[in-house]
TrEMBL record:
It holds the Pfam family PGM1_C_vert_fung. Its EC number is 5.4.2.2. One of its GO terms (biological process) is glucose metabolic process. It is found in: Plastid, Chloroplast. InterPro entries: A-D-PHexomutase_a/b/a-I, A-D-PHexomutase_a/b/a-I/II/III, A-D-PHexomutase_a/b/a-II, A-D-PHexomutase_a/b/a-III, A-D-PHexomutase_C_sf, A-D-PHexomutase_CS, Alpha-D-phosphohexomutase_SF, PGM. Belongs to the phosphohexose mutase family. It comes from Erythroxylum novogranatense. It catalyses: O-phospho-L-seryl-[protein] + alpha-D-glucose 1-phosphate = alpha-D-glucose 1,6-bisphosphate + L-seryl-[protein]; alpha-D-glucose 1,6-bisphosphate + L-seryl-[protein] = O-phospho-L-seryl-[protein] + alpha-D-glucose 6-phosphate; alpha-D-glucose 1-phosphate = alpha-D-glucose 6-phosphate. SUPFAM superfamilies: Phosphoglucomutase, C-terminal domain (SSF55957), Phosphoglucomutase, first 3 domains (SSF53738). This is phosphoglucomutase (alpha-D-glucose-1,6-bisphosphate-dependent).
């Protein structure tokens, strides 16, 4: 039987260290635990790992040990998560350690629920010092699966590496956990409870976020589309956190029919699903959208509500195209951008579709490493409004996280805007029409990503080492089949705002025609190594735009497999997921 970590903490001998204003704070002795280094987005491990004695508590205490006291003493923090297994127990541990370290007040989503973008929105709106997100994003949940924790700072953005490195350092020397001796907090009803000077307020997970969405978008415009009888919408919450948001926003506010929400109840194990909105894991939605007479618009979001997938009838919008199309239409269709976006950005492996929009609109443009945290400084500095990643992340500076529901509302705004004058019976401009028009104007950046999940780490690392060697010897102009190399490197990024440098962010082969082959290891897996191979090629000839991406990219894919010797290094014949 799995044990609650709180039980084991109470069982160990502890001494009261202070009794300020009526709460007793215990000093719980502890020892460092190996392996608490955070990846692309926080600390992610199997639930069983987090359930080991003091595992979570050590990390949370190490975090407080890493923050300047003025960032939390008597301060305001936010806590929420995606509803996955272990969140309830974890929330109680986090609340007690926050109280033990002198936090003044913590806002907790009802039942521990808050999507990742909603945490960011609440931090910003309530001027909190920061917040915890209990989620392993799109990784499956349940006793056998994953759990995770992430800390966001006062402008709502994920803590920078300077902080997460410090936390890791402190996990290696930790000796004491400061735990308030307060009862478990009832998270099922809204309102404040006081424990001495420490306050816990249970908040509605939806209201602050919904208010922000109403500021950003023209809800009347979207409503005019969703209430048409000739437009059918479907949203798949994948039994994850956006289940809590979909009905209040799409149905109650915007007039979608109740049956347009699928898998709308958040479950601790996501209904045994893998809550990742892509063509493989959101198969149920894909089948509906590709069925005869399917809906006109389909979308899904992931475990914690920050990713999105957009589909039209019989049509998939790649995330790289999605951000480019949103950026191109934002000024007309979305009130928040009525003066035009300030700048655009994408992660390095994301296709160059957005670059072409930035060029045409003459906007500042940035290419950052994989990971949403790299957009934050640019936004805070007023350089960036709209950004996206190939990994099904799209968003803007309304919060400091990518935002699944925002992306769906952005697309609905675009479709609604395009059809605002259409009379009943007139043919509507479809998702596919919008994308094809975009390709005709800007060219089509064919894009595909191959994932090789849970490979042996040794082989995967060797392959990356080998590729580093290949690029170190490569020279511009060198021929790779029919492609000539323009540049080969291991991507490195210098943040234009604070000058920090992130190196070794992915091996790039960029060819003279703009085609790219990219390799990197995933930073979000919880076991083994996931190899990602990204392939891209620009096609300006409209007559070729309807070609299937796999067909169009076949020569480059073959080239990538041969340059990397991927099969030899990983033993994998084919990828686990293709997007
Ligand atoms: C998370 C981050 C994204 C990032 C993605 C990459 O979802 O929030 O910003 O793009 O991870 O994951 P990977 O597994 O490729 O490191
Ligand atoms: Zn996520």
């Amino acid at each position: 039987r799995l044990q609650s970590p709180f039980g084991s903490i109470r069982a160990s001998s502890s001494t009261a260290i202070a009794e300020p204003e009526g709460i007793k704070i215990n000093s719980v002795p502890t020892k460092p635990i190996e392996g608490q280094k955070t990846g692309t987005s926080g600390l992610r491990k199997k639930v069983k790992v987090f359930m080991q004695d003091n595992y979570l508590a050590n990390w949370i205490q190490a975090l407080f040990n890493s923050l300047p006291p003025e960032d939390y003493k008597n301060g305001l923090l936010v806590l929420g998560g995606d509803g996955r297994y272990f969140n309830r127990e974890a929330a109680q541990v986090i609340i007690k350690i926050a109280a033990g370290n002198g936090v003044g007040k913590i806002l907790v989503g009802k039942e521990g629920i808050l999507s990742t973008p909603a945490v960011s929105a609440v931090i910003r709106k309530r001027k909190a010092n920061g917040g915890f997100i209990m989620s392993a994003s799109h990784n499956p949940g349940g006793p056998e699966y994953d759990w995770g924790i992430k800390f966001n700072y006062s402008s709502g953005q994920p803590a920078p590496e300077s902080i997460t490195d410090k936390i890791y350092g402190n996990t290696l020397s930790i000796s004491e956990i400061k735990m308030a001796d307060i009862p478990d907090v009832d998270l099922s009803s809204l309102g404040e409870t006081k424990y001495g000077n420490f306050i816990v307020e249970v908040i509605d997970p939806v209201s602050d976020y919904m208010e922000l969405m109403e500021d950003v978008f023209d809800f009347e415009l979207i409503k005019s589309l969703l209430s048409r009888s000739d437009f059918r919408f479907t949203f798949d919450a994948m039994h994850a956190v956006t289940g809590a948001y979909a009905k209040p926003i799409f149905v109650d506010k915007l007039g979608a029919t109740p049956d347009s929400i699928k898998n709308g109840v958040p479950l601790e194990d996501f209904g045994h699903g893998h809550p990742d909105p892509n063509l493989t894991y959101a198969k149920e939605l894909v089948d509906v959208m590709y069925a005869e007479n399917g809906p006109d618009f389909g979308a899904a979001s992931d475990g914690d509500g920050d990713r999105n997938m957009i589909l039209g009838r019989h049509f998939f919008v790649t995330p790289s195209d999605s951000v480019a199309i949103i950026a191109a239409s934002a000024q007309l269709a979305i009130p928040y951008f009525k003066s035009g976006p300030k700048g655009l950005a994408r992660s390095m492996p994301t296709s160059g579709a957005l670059d072409r929009v930035a060029e045409k609109l003459v906007l500042p443009f940035f290419e950052v490493p994989t990971g949403w945290k790299f957009f934050g400084n640019l936004m805070d500095d007023g350089k960036l409004s709209i950004c996206g990643e190939e990994s099904f992340g799209t968003g803007s500076d309304h919060v400091r996280e990518k935002d699944g529901i925002w992306a769906v509302l952005a697309w609905l705004s675009i479709i609604a805007y395009r059809n605002r004058n259409k009379k009943p019976g007139e043919k509507l401009v479809s998702v596919a029409d919008v994308v094809k028009e975009h390709w005709a104007t800007y060219g089509r950046n064919f894009f595909s990503r191959y994932d090789y999940e849970e490979c042996e780490s040794e082989g995967a690392n060797k392959m990356i080492d080998y590729l580093r060697e290949v690029i170190s010897k490569s020279k511009p102009g060198e021929k790779y089949g029919s492609y000539a190399l323009q540049l080969g490197d291991d991507f490195s990024y210098t943040d234009p705002v604070d000058g920090s440098v992130a190196s070794k962010q992915g091996i790039r082969f960029v060819f003279t025609d703009g085609s790219r082959i990219i390799f990197r290891l995933s930073g979000t897996g919880s076991s083994g190594a996931t190899v990602r191979m990204y392939i891209e090629q620009l096609e300006t000839d409209v007559s070729k735009h309807d070609t299937d991406a796999q067909t169009a990219l076949k020569p480059l894919i073959d080239l990538a497999l041969s340059i990397s010797k991927l099969k030899d290094f990983t033993g994998r014949e084919r990828p686990t997921v293709i997007t």
